[in-house]
Write a structure and sequence with these properties.
single chain; five-stranded mixed barrel; four-stranded antiparallel beta sheet; 4 domains; alpha+beta; GMP Synthetase, Chain A, domain 3
Length: 257
């Protein structure tokens, strides 16, 4: 059985082969990934995918779970230390989270930065502090939101969590084509501060519909009266025609000649 499980809070889930293990969503498993032993939390069972799978080592034992919990308890202090060191060195980066590998050999810090950051000195200082191998992993705003989980203003689970790894970049053109550009960035932005992922779901359908619709200002003769297009309803495939007497009429695109 194929399962989906997440190693790092900010990262996409990976696909594993459960073997003979009896597993449920929320269970912790021990896996070997990139020559390291890690723990992962199962988020989906019976995943239908053609992706290559990774064999799990075992379902976490009581001792394994205690190790995972100890590692989690260390993260808050580790993040604070890393933030303090980055601030001392005036590095333009936001330290988001930390992860202690299950085998104890590495600490991974995730960060956000607008520009390239030279953090070599930071890594050396962290290595001395923790006496472990240190890795800094740059992530995006969506990845930060994914790590915190949560719900959007729609009341549903965040798209970056629910559709992990399958979301395309959303642009201002996606909002404009759906006639939402005038709503303002505060209403179009998600918890990550970027344009909401859901704006990308229907954008292509809007583009296809728009190809079959007249431009604003185009003139048509409706019932013996000449009028021009002043507004479009892309989803319903209708336009609003305004006549010379200022009266308006909603007309289906298929009825225009």
């Amino acid at each position: 059985m194929k399962i989906s499980a997440k190693i790092f809070p900010w990262d996409n889930s990976r696909i594993f082969d459960s073997g003979d293990c009896d597993l449920e969503v929320g269970d912790i498993i021990i896996v070997n990934v990139d020559s390291e032993t890690e723990s992962a939390i199962i988020d989906k069972i019976n995943v239908k995918t053609k992706e290559n799978t990774i064999d799990i080592v075992r379902k976490a034992t009581t001792i394994d779970i205690e190790t995972v919990e100890r590692n989690r308890d260390k993260c808050k202090d580790a993040v604070k230390l890393c933030r303090d060191l980055a601030s001392e060195k005036e590095l333009a980066m936001k330290i988001v989270d930390a992860h202690f590998s299950f085998d104890g050999g590495k600490v991974i810090f995730s960060f956000i930065a607008e520009k390239r950051v030279d953090f070599r000195d930071l890594v050396r200082n962290l290595s001395k502090k923790f006496q472990r191998s240190i890795r800094l992993q740059q992530i995006g705003s969506r990845d930060e939101a994914r790590g915190k989980n949560g719900f959007g203003v729609c009341g549903r689970e965040l798209c970056c969590v629910k559709f992990s790894g399958s979301l395309k970049s959303v642009t201002t053109e996606d909002a404009r084509v759906q006639q939402m550009g005038q709503r303002g960035s505060d209403r179009l932005s998600g918890l990550c501060g970027r344009l909401k992922c859901c704006l990308g779901f229907e954008a292509e359908q809007y583009r296809e519909n728009l190809k079959k619709m007249p431009q604003i200002g185009a003139k048509f003769n409706i019932g013996g009266k000449e009028g021009k297009v002043v507004e479009k309803n892309v989803l319903s495939k209708e336009v609003i025609i305004e006549f010379e007497d200022r009266n308006k009429e909603t007309v289906a695109v298929d009825e225009l000649k």
